[in-house]
């Protein structure tokens, strides 16, 4: 049987580096990212800028069965202007490539920062009201809306994964509540690529936790059953709840992003 071929954007970033060796066990990968990397067996690296229409056209030539869109500018201090090309233009170009080239599946890496200003004193499922904690989270709200438009208008099977924290080790108790392992995140991507019932779905990307902040209500329609438990992945310098303060954003889903000042959009 011919293996499916996935385009993975942001393949040289932290999440892309985490997922690559896991995804290539099942799929052939076309990788692109900011840094040049040496591809492994089953991978092809194509350098370029996914905010360029010409490059997006180039990198989606030939057989592409699905796109895993991980790329984007990420920072709690991002200005609005800094998000426009990497976080707005790129997602539209990739979705348009799916439409024009009949690429059947699109997996969008969204973020818990899309609901970052919600209070952390309760658990939230995927129906939580949108409450971005900065211009990064705001750009993810746009990305989700763009995915919904293309999925419903052009029947592109789309999975939106609101990733919690995907660091190899968990540094504090807030992040422990939203953490996801590489294996579990890969399992969600596979569901996005393989589920026969998928049309469009928004799922919280989290593993098991003693005090989950984001629930997995929407994943019940899929075969996804997380294996990892966050309590087993604490960093040696792990900070418990007692050591966290308002300056750490402990009262909000988005943590430090929520606690940080919002850059003035008039200043770019």
Describe the protein:
- With 268 residues, this protein is of the alpha/beta class.
- It has a single domain, classed as NAD(P)-binding Rossmann-like Domain (Rossmann fold, 3-Layer(aba) Sandwich), CATH 3.40.50.
- 30% of the residues lie in helices and 17% in strands.
- The protein has seven helices and nine strands.
- The chain has helices at 14-23, 53-59, 80-101, 135-154, 173-176, 182-194, 256-259, and strands at residues 5-9, 28-31, 43-45, 66-69, 105-111, 157-163, 170-172, 200-205, 234-239.
- Helix 3 (80-101) packs parallel to helix 4 (135-154).
- The chain is globular and about 55 Å long.
- The termini are far apart.
- The mean pLDDT is 95.
Question: What is the element layout, followed by pairings?
Answer:
Elements: E1 5-9, H1 14-23, E2 28-31, E3 43-45, H2 53-59, E4 66-69, H3 80-101, E5 105-111, H4 135-154, E6 157-163, E7 170-172, H5 173-176, H6 182-194, E8 200-205, E9 234-239, H7 256-259
Parallel strand pairs: 1-2, 1-4, 2-3, 4-5, 5-6, 6-8, 7-9
For the record, give the distance between the C-alpha atoms at the N and C termini, rounded to a whole number.
Answer: 50 Å
Principal-axes geometry comes out as: globular
Q: What is the CATH class name?
A: Alpha Beta
| SSE pattern | EHEEHEHEHEEHHEEH
Across the major sheet, the strand order is 3-2-1-4-5-6-8
Low-confidence stretches: none
Give the class from helix and strand content and strand pairing: alpha/beta
Please give the largest β-sheet: 7 strands, parallel
